[in-house]
């Protein structure tokens, strides 16, 4: 593997991890910075979301009642094809809500992501498959 390919893989992995850590920290600006403007997203069986701003707004609404949350992400596959890449990310997250602070909700799933190199690597497509939600 060339040094350029290794750097791309590290940069892509960093982008994917920043997705979860930005959500956990409530850093919507940081989250927006790693999403392509024309993002296509779908979370579980929810309606498709088009556009990075719409996705950030959806995430903000979905996490508004979060007292705390914590994503565990593992990047399993990264395939790079020039200025495009695909990645498989396993996801387990824990979240407590202000409305039920004594209960921790667990979500297990997979992200299937597409990324594009713009001014850095950006997530251009995000499909979250929900395997289990408690």
Q: How much β-strand is present in the residues?
A: over 45%
Instruction: Kindly report the CATH topology.
Output: Nuclear Transport Factor 2, Chain: A
Number of helices: 3
Structural class category: alpha+beta
What's the order of the H and E elements?
HHEEHEEEE
Identify the CATH class: Alpha Beta
- Radius of gyration computed on alpha carbons: 15 Å
Q: Provide the CATH architecture.
A: Roll
Number of domains: 1
Pfam families: SnoaL_4
Protein name: SnoaL-like domain-containing protein
Domain SnoaL-like: 5-125
What keyword list fits this structure?
single chain, 134 residues, alpha+beta, Nuclear Transport Factor 2, Chain: A, six-stranded mixed sheet, 3 helices
Compile the SSE list and pairings.
Blueprint: H1 3-25, H2 28-33, E1 35-43, E2 49-50, H3 52-62, E3 66-81, E4 84-97, E5 100-118, E6 120-133
Parallel strand pairs: 1-6
Antiparallel strand pairs: 1-2, 3-4, 4-5, 5-6
Organism: Actinomadura vinacea
Pfam families: SnoaL_4
InterPro entries: NTF2-like_dom_sf, SnoaL-like
């Amino acid at each position: 593997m060339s040094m350029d390919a290794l750097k791309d893989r590290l940069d892509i992995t960093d982008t994917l991890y920043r997705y979860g850590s930005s959500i956990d920290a409530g850093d919507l600006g940081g989250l927006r910075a790693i999403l392509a403007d024309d993002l296509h997203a779908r979370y579980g069986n929810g309606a498709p979301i088009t556009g990075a701003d719409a996705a950030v707004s959806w995430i903000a609404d979905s996490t508004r009642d979060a007292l705390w949350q914590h994503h565990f992400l593992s990047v399993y596959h990264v395939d790079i094809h020039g200025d495009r890449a695909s990645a498989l990310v396993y996801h387990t997250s824990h979240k407590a809500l202000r409305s039920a602070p004594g209960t921790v909700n667990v979500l297990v799933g997979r992200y299937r992501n597409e990324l594009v190199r713009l001014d850095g690597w950006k997530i251009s497509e995000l499909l979250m498959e929900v395997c289990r939600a408690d």
